[in-house]
Design brief:
The protein is of the alpha/beta class. It contains 9 helices and 8 strands. It has a 6-stranded mixed sheet.
């Protein structure tokens, strides 16, 4: 069973411990090469970071990286340094992308957070975004977000492949995990989401991923996985000040969050060889 299939199964079963029981479940033990969390602005990177580390961090947009630690309790206890790269364009983001994807920094892996068009639009940007939507509807907003996500994914994959080429794979990263976040909002069109993200669908996202896999094969083992998550099921609302809001309802209850997060922890244990 693929990781995607396991993720969908976990969301359908809605069983397991609560997300509060799992968040930040273990104390740090020892340092490993960092894992980067990347993705477009509003994808939910910081929320995932907060759950994994048990630390608090603002959900409002940030131009500085979030740094924390998460322990994986597999066959051997392993501590990860987890670093979130902000989606907003800033000097801090440029410096951190250059540092962590550079030729002198070792990386364990990379997590890319995607949302299939449901990125949160911060309130101070909402009016500007709304004014640029033509026509003004949810489909146009979703496509705008999907286009931005693809650009961000393309940048991540390019830098990842470049790093492995320059270092011959010696400094990693050894894997890329794409998290399709907020699946509760797209549950009613799951087949369309699967076709867009999964290998073989012929969509632009997979074309970028396929190029990455082809470029990295020459530099040792590399794993690529896709995991659907619904860590905080809630309605999606885009609410500019000068016109009516746009909304999409959540199609899953909050009871799926625990089983979804538990699978994320298991996936990280597998990826890191814990």
């Amino acid at each position: 069973m693929t990781l995607w299939e396991r993720g969908i199964d976990a969301l359908r079963n809605q069983s397991g411990p609560s997300i509060d029981e799992l968040s930040g479940r273990a104390l740090p033990w020892r340092r490993r090469a960092p894992v980067l969390v990347t993705g477009s602005a509003g994808a939910g990177k910081t929320a995932i970071w907060r759950l994994l580390t048990g630390k608090s961090a603002p959900d409002a947009r940030s131009t500085r990286p979030d740094e924390g630690r998460v322990s994986l309790m597999g066959r051997a206890k392993r501590d990860l340094s987890l670093i979130t790269i902000p989606g907003q364009i800033s000097l801090d983001r440029y410096r951190d992308m250059k540092l962590f994807f550079g030729e002198f920094t070792q990386l364990e892996g990379v997590i890319f957070v995607a949302t299939f068009g449901f990125d949160t639009i911060w309130q101070d940007e909402a009016d500007d975004v709304a004014a640029r939507l033509a026509p003004y509807n949810m489909d146009t907003l979703s496509q705008r977000n999907i286009d931005n996500e693809l650009d961000s994914f393309r940048e991540t994959c390019f830098k990842l492949a470049e790093k492995r080429a320059v270092t011959s794979g010696a400094l990693g990263p050894r894997w890329l995990l794409v998290i399709v976040n907020k699946v509760d909002l797209m549950w009613h069109e799951l087949a369309k989401v699967q076709r867009y993200y999964l290998p073989g669908g012929g969509e632009p996202f997979d074309a970028v991923a396929r190029t990455l896999r082809e470029r990295t094969l020459a530099y040792g083992a590399f794993r690529y996985d896709i995991l659907p998550l619904a860590l905080d099921p809630q309605d999606y609302v885009f609410a500019p000040n000068f016109t009516e809001p746009l909304a999409t309802p959540s199609h899953l209850s909050g009871s799926v969050a625990g089983s979804s997060f538990q699978l994320l922890l298991t996936a990280l244990e597998e990826l890191c060889g814990a």
